[in-house]
Amino acid sequence: MHESRASASQLLSQARDALVGAPKEGLGEERDSRWRGRRIVRVGDAWHLGVLLVTDTHALATAEVLRAADPGRRGYTAESARDRAERRALALRGGFDEGAVAHVGWTVVDVDAVDAGGSSGPLSTIDGVASVRWSTAGGWMPLEAYLRERIALLQG
Known about the structure:
Elements: H1 8-19, E1 25-33, E2 37-49, E3 52-54, E4 59-61, E5 64-67, H2 79-93, E6 101-104, E7 107-108, H3 111-115, E8 119-120, E9 123-126, E10 129-133, E11 140-142, H4 143-155
Parallel strand pairs: 1-6
Antiparallel strand pairs: 1-2, 2-3, 3-4, 4-7, 5-6, 8-9, 9-10, 10-11
Helix pairs in contact: 1-4
């Protein structure tokens, strides 16, 4: 099957149209204030498509994914488990509902740069085809096929 030469911005626009009504997840940012302390607050929402988060206006590269939760009183065998529990509690403290997903540390993808033949975040134009690196160890995949697959999984 031959992939089209549609630009990244065209493909993302088509994806947004296809995703209308699909569930979104929360975008969070870490905040620290004298009065409210450290917390992760909701700053928007997006469709989670693997290495991409797609909002109504932007494409973002995913980073940390948390599920807001009370850390409770547990014993931890690893310091990393304790740190992760604290991060989940920061999302709960910031206003995310218990069990809600919070994406933190995401970065905006410069889709115009990709359309111009360059790269930004996990997107790049390779041999004239908008492509995505779906993992740090993985290779490049045409963005059109990636979005089609991820949208089908989300709409399940």
